[in-house]
Amino acid sequence: MKQRILFIVNPISGGLNKISIPTLIDENLDLDKFDAEIIYTDFPHHAKQLASEGLAQNFDIVAAVGGDGTINEVADVLESSGKTMAIVPCGSGNGLARTLGIPLNTAKAIARINNLSFTAIDVGLLNDKKFFNMAGMGFDAHISAHFANSKKRGFFGYLKSTLKEVSSYRPQHYKIHIGDKKLSVDAFMLSLANSSQYGNNAHISPTASLKDGLLDICIIKPFPLKVFPILGWRMFSKTAHKSKYVDIIKANDFSVLRQTDGPVHVDGEPLNMGETLNVSVKKLALNIII
To answer: What are phi and psi of 230, to 5 degrees?
Structure first.
C-alpha cells in the first residue's frame, strides 16, 4: 500500500522560487511508494493550519518545503502525533536540515524521502512555544526581529542586519535557575541550542545533540567589538565553545528571569515574551525522515 505524503510549500522562504517543486516531486519521488499532494501557504502561520488539516486527513508523512520557520510550524503539529515529518530545505539558514544531514539540493532532498529512513529528535519548549533547532534571547532575538522586516533574505541579508546592529546593541542581565542552582549573568545573547547551529554552518554549540534530552544553554558574555569577527570565525570553525566569552551549560528543565519583557526567537521567528521564561525538553518526540 502506498504511503500518503503531503508537501506543504512556503513559496517565499529563503527568497527562492518554488515554481519547479511539482516537477521535481514528479521526477524524484518514487510514485510507486507514495501518493503525493502539494499545497502552498498563503500567509504567516498557514503551514501550521495546513499541517493540522493533513493530520486530520490521515496523511502518513507531512513534508515542510521551506526554511526553519516553516519547519517549526509543521513540526509543532506533528510532534508526539505518531506521524512522520520530512524536510525539503529552502530557507535562509536551514539549520535543522544541515544538522540532520538532509541535502540542501531540492531534488536530492525529495529523493532522500524514498529511503524512508527515520530518526527521532528532541523538542524544546520556551514557555508554550516549541522549537526544534534553536531558540534564544538577546542579540540573536534582536536580529531575528530586524531580519524579519528586511526585504533582503538569505545569508547576506542576515549578515547585513548583524553588522548594522552589533555596535549599538547592549548586553542584558539574566538569572538562570536550574534546579537548586542559580546563576546571575550579563550576556550579549543567551541561545538555547537543541542542535549545534543557527544555520549556514554557524555552530554556537558544537557538542549539542538533537537526541540527548538536553538543551545547551549558550551564554555569550559581553566582549570587545574587536573580538566579534573572531567569535564569528569560531562559530564557522566549530570552536565557539572554546572561547573565553562563551559558557555552555546542559539542562533539560530550567527558567530564565530577565529585567524586562521583550523579544525572543524560536527557530529564527521573532516573538515577544515576558520577564520569566520557562524552558523544558520533550525527549525524542518528533519523527523525521533523514
So the answer is: -70, -40
